[in-house]
UniProtKB/TrEMBL annotation:
This is MADS-box domain-containing protein. Residues 1-61 form the MADS-box domain. Pfam families: SRF-TF (PF00319). Its main location: nucleus. SUPFAM superfamilies: SRF-like. Keywords: DNA-binding, Nucleus, Transcription, Transcription regulation. One of its GO terms (molecular function) is DNA-binding transcription factor activity, RNA polymerase II-specific. It comes from Spirodela intermedia (Intermediate duckweed). The keyword Nucleotide-binding does not apply. It is found in: Nucleus. One of its GO terms (cellular component) is nucleus.
Length: 185
């Protein structure tokens, strides 16, 4: 008989709905796996059954894909699937203009952080920026100390941090004061 086009609507029969969910979930995960294998993509899918059970597919590894997603900076790509076409176009144009400005600045020998103005940032955003700069400063100091003392840098990339006394020694030696923040921080 071949394939037939089915009407997209809720299946009223509870048993038929459960069977359809199971088959379609399996098909979805199979296609996603094929996409990952053929194209080298990293993907994850979360599906809740009508009964509330969570089903997860992830390739190559669930934690790796979710960590990558959670650490990605928010941007137009994150909201595009839910935006209307004019909103998507606007977001893409804004992203393109921002990237072009960064490229132009780097070609001219300037860096984006030299171009960034703190004017207009609210108090809360400035506090968060200060915290981020502080965390970055500590991370750089820890890396520098590990390099100086010969501690394996592989340990740092594996997620371990330098012991607190290494940071203290680094800052006590006066190296931690090389990063100057704008007044008011």
């Amino acid at each position: 008989m071949g394939r037939r086009k089915i009407e997209i609507k809720r299946i009223e029969n509870n048993e038929a709905r459960h069977v359809t969910f199971s088959k379609r979930r399996t098909g979805l995960f199979k296609k996603l796996g094929e996409l990952c294998i053929h194209c080298g993509a990293e993907a994850a899918a979360l599906v809740y059954s009508p009964g509330g059970k969570l089903h997860i597919f992830a390739h190559p590894d669930e934690a790796l894909v979710f960590d990558r997603f959670l650490s990605a900076p928010p941007g137009p790509a994150a909201v595009m699937p839910f935006a209307s076409p004019p909103e998507r176009e606007s977001a893409l144009r804004a992203s393109c203009a921002e990237l072009q400005a960064v490229l132009d600045a780097e070609k001219a020998g300037r860096r984006w952080w030299e171009e960034t103005s703190l004017d207009g940032l609210g108090a809360e955003r400035l506090r968060r920026l200060r915290g981020s700069v502080s965390e970055l400063r500590q991370a750089v100091a820890a890396r520098a100390e590990m390099a100086r003392t010969g501690v394996a840098l592989e340990a740092a990339s594996a997620g371990t941090s330098a012991p607190p006394d290494a940071w203290a020694d680094f800052f006590d030696a006066g190296h931690g004061d090389t990063l100057q923040l704008p007044s008011g921080f």
